[in-house]
Specification:
The protein is mostly helical and 100 residues long. The protein is built from three helices and two strands. It has one domain.
Length: 100
Amino acid sequence: MNRFVNRIELIFLAIFGLAIIGIVAYQTLWVAPVQKCESAGNWWEPISRTCGHVIYLPDITHRPIGSKTPPRYPGLPQSRDQAAAATSVPAPVSTAPIRR
């Protein structure tokens, strides 16, 4: 009987140890990255497990802060006529002789 109790005791101790290792691994690999990301003010994407950060919209669109007008990009045509004139360039003509 004593051997049986010792064996059961070891089995429960092994199960307890595996449970503790599993809980620590879960906390370290799944919960801690979420808490670290959200505490930094970012948002967590659970499907891909990535931490995203906020991108300020005027930095992308180059608009002044609070502006309701569409952005102006220097170098781009400002009207449809300018765009049509910029893209309606005739195809280059080759002056090389034709070989047959």
